Structure formats: structure tokens, C-alpha cells
């Protein structure tokens, strides 16, 4: 059946789906999000040629659906807002204070940075620009940046590293000229991140709630910004503790401007607003 009109999500089906999303992804959808979920899943029902949300629910809860549809559903329900140089005070701190304090230590082995919830890659490539620029003006630092996200759609964009000209507006002109390559197609107003930066990064799919972190290395710096705001307090604490298992003692952790660890039992101490350091035991 091909959809010719907007289908409606009943309260019962919303409750089933929201509970499933919370269990698998950690995102808490309150009842006011029902219209949003209904709208975002319309495309999946159309692609699957399903005539009702009940049919979709029955499918997603089946063994076949859990294996084949879960990734597609997550792509639709996750929010992927990001920008280059978003919350610039973090990058200023990184460049002016954090890197000068540790550069002697990292002359002999790579500085490892994790962008956890990297979306379409803007944060990862911003970090790569900042670290590359620091290495140009100070003692060179070898570094590697690992970006992870739960959405396969945005990860593909991150790997491709192609962005429209309006997306690169926050990047300083000198950095644009140095690290971005304009499309040779004059009708295609896009740029691609230069190979010198792309060679320093890696992207992988990761679900904070389900996947094993043991395959990841230990990181010196973790950026997890504007991600845990979609979780309830208990899930936030759980996720932060899992992330901290991959942060070396004394390593640095960056949260988004609206996020906090207040009243949480996590091994982090605040050194600046939304900037933390892992407590050494």
C-alpha cells in the first residue's frame, strides 16, 4: 500500500514506540513529542509501503524489524544540529590554555580526541583545524580524532566531508582558504575538507546505550556537547560514566553550554563552565 495521506499515530502506538526508543537509545520522548515522532516516521512508513503506525509498530517489534529497521528509525528520530566552531569558547580554551599545558607530553605519541555524538562532522573537522593550527605555530603535535554517532545518515555526510557554503560561514577566512577545497563545478557551491585533515579523523557508528566501548582507545579529550540534553537525569549519569571509562585520568571533558553534571556521581571536576577534568584516583 502506497501512502497518499498523512497517517495518525495513536497514543497507544506512541507509548509503545517511545518506550522502545528510550530502552534502545536513551532518548526520552514526552507526550508533547508525539506530533514530531509522527511526522518524522511518515517517510519510513511510505518507504515500507505500510498503511498504519500499528503495522509499523508490529514490524519494529518483530525479530526481523529489530534487525533491519532499527537503524533507519533511529536516523529519523535523532536530532543532528551542529555547526563549525559551535560554542567557540571551548576551542579558544583548547588552543590558548589546554594545548600549551600538555604539548610537551604529546610530542612522542598521538593526542587522542573523541567527538562523541559528532553528527555530520563539523565538530570533528573544527577540532582538526584547531589542532593543526596549533601544530603550525608551536611544537608539532601528532593527533587523531575519533567521531562517533548513532545515525548512519549523518556519519555518511561526515565521511564525505562535503559542506555547502552557508555551513562554513563560522570558519575564519584564513582557515577556509587553508583547509577547504572548492568544488570545480561552478554550479555546485560546496566545499570539501582537505585530505590533510581527513587523514587525521575516523568515524564510526556507536550507540551509547548498547554498544561495547571496549573496542575504543583511551582518550585524552572528549567532546560530548549537546547530546545528553535528550536524556533524562538517570540516563545522563549512566552515559557520562560510560564515556569517562574511556577518558584517561586527568583528561578533559567538554559538555554543551546547557548541560550540567550537578548532583551527578561522575568522576569529573569542573575547571571552567562546561569544561571538566577527570579526577585521578
From TrEMBL:
InterPro entries per UniProt: Bact_Chemotaxis_MeTrfase (IPR050903), Chemotaxis_MeTrfase_CheR (IPR026024), CheR_C (IPR022642), CheR_MeTrfase (IPR000780), CheR_N (IPR022641), CheR_N_sf (IPR036804), SAM-dependent_MTases_sf (IPR029063)
Name of the protein in question: protein-glutamate O-methyltransferase
Known EC number: 2.1.1.80
Catalysed conversion reaction: L-glutamyl-[protein] + S-adenosyl-L-methionine = [protein]-L-glutamate 5-O-methyl ester + S-adenosyl-L-homocysteine
Entry GO MF terms: protein-glutamate O-methyltransferase activity
Classification via SUPFAM superfamilies: Chemotaxis receptor methyltransferase CheR, N-terminal domain, S-adenosyl-L-methionine-dependent methyltransferases
Uppermost EC category: transferase
Organism: Xanthocytophaga agilis
Gene Ontology terms describing biological process: methylation
Keywords, comma-separated and alphabetical: Methyltransferase, S-adenosyl-L-methionine, Transferase
Keyword field contains Methyltransferase: yes
Residue span, CheR-type methyltransferase domain: 2-281
Classification via Pfam families: CheR, CheR_N
The keyword Signal appears for this protein: no
Amino acid at each position: 500500500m502506497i501512502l497518499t495521506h498523512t497517517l495518525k499515530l495513536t497514543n497507544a502506538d506512541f507509548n509503545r514506540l517511545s518506550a522502545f526508543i528510550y530502552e534502545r537509545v536513551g532518548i526520552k520522548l514526552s507526550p508533547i513529542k508525539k506530533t514530531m515522532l509522527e511526522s518524522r516516521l511518515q517517510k519510513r512508513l511510505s518507504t515500507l509501503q505500510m498503511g498504519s503506525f500499528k503495522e509499523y509498530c508490529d514490524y519494529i517489534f518483530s525479530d526481523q524489524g529489530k534487525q533491519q529497521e532499527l537503524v533507519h528509525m533511529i536516523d529519523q528520530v535523532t536530532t543532528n544540529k551542529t555547526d563549525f566552531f559551535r560554542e567557540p569558547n571551548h576551542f579558544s580554551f583548547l588552543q590558548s590554555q589546554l594545548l600549551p599545558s600538555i604539548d610537551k607530553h604529546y610530542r612522542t605519541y598521538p593526542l587522542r580526541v573523541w567527538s562523541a555524538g559528532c553528527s555530520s562532522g563539523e565538530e570533528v573537522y573544527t577540532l582538526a583545524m584547531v589542532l593543526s593550527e596549533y601544530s603550525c605555530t608551536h611544537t608539532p603535535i601528532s593527533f587523531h580524532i575519533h567521531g562517533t554517532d548513532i545515525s548512519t545518515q549523518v556519519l555518511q555526510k561526515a565521511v564525505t566531508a562535503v559542506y555547502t557554503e552557508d555551513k562554513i560561514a563560522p570558519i575564519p577566512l584564513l582557515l577556509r582558504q587553508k583547509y577547504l577545497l572548492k568544488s570545480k563545478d561552478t554550479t555546485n557551491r560546496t566545499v570539501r575538507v582537505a585530505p590533510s585533515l581527513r587523514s587525521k579523523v575516523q568515524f564510526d557508528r556507536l550507540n551509547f546505550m548498547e554498544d561495547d566501548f571496549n573496542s575504543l582507545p583511551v582518550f585524552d579529550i572528549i567532546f560530548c556537547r549537546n547530546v545528553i540534553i535528550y536524556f533524562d537525569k538517570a540516563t545522563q549519569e549512566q552515559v557520562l560514566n560510560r564515556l569517562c571509562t574511556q577518558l584517561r585520568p586527568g583528561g578533559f571533558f567538554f559538555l554543551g553550554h546547557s548541560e550540567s553534571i550537578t548532583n551527578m556521581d561522575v568522576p569529573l571536576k569542573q575547571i571552567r563552565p562546561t569544561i571538566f577534568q577527570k579526577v585521578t584516583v
